[in-house]
Amino acid sequence: MLEACDITLGYRRGESVLRGISLQLAAGEWLGLSGASGAGKSTLGQVLAGHLAPRRGSLRLDGAALPRRGLHPVQWLPQVPELAVNPRWRIDRVLNEAWSPSAAQRRRFGIGDAWLERYPHELSGGELQRVVVLRGLAPGVRYLIADEISSMLDAITQAALWQALREEAEARNLGVLVIGHDAALLQRLCQRRVRLERGQLLASS
Ligand SMILES: Nc1ncnc2c1ncn2[C@@H]1O[C@H](COP(=O)(O)OP(=O)(O)OP(=O)(O)O)[C@@H](O)[C@H]1O
């Protein structure tokens, strides 16, 4: 179980974006997170993945503090994959940075063999997104924060990405927080949904 308790965070001297947020995500659960643009969804996702330290509050994984070093068991998959890769590395190196996905896994995520020799700018945004998602599934990862990962994909590629992710998540009992604006998508993917509004979480239909 991933638990966030009383998370409060504001940027610089501004108002708090997150105000005393508590959240639980169980192993194997898919939880949808929506909210207006600027509500703080990515901020919360980055706190959960250890990229941002909250001003107040705590995070626990199965009752223990999260590790400060090494592979983080909560991986944030960002909306803009270009910002998550080294532009000077070929895709082969990018993909194999933390672990070595099999050829079958590459195929399930629709990653072409010919892409491996290319540089990130030689892939489309949607193609690079699939590389970044598969890269984030290293053994030892227990929870994923999927932050609007499919918003730049066409409907068929989007469905294929979620299917591949669902298969991996089911096989490994991964918990997934799906951040998005598409209510129909969240309803389809997630058993439970919450909404971020004025820095607080509300149950959502
Ligand atoms: N590094 C930063 N420095 C200062 N303010 C920031 C920073 N990152 C985000 N913010 C502000 O924090 C608020 C929440 O941003 P965040 O990206 O978490 O929202 P979001 O709900 O994910 O939005 P969107 O749906 O548009 O992606 C916004 O007002 C944003 O301008």
Automatic annotation (TrEMBL):
GO terms for biological process: transmembrane transport. Residues 2-205 form the ABC transporter domain. GO terms for molecular function: ATP binding; ATP hydrolysis activity. Keywords: ATP-binding, Nucleotide-binding, Transport. This is Nickel ABC transporter ATP-binding protein. Signal peptide: none annotated. Belongs to the ABC transporter superfamily. The keyword Nucleotide-binding applies. The keyword rRNA-binding does not apply.
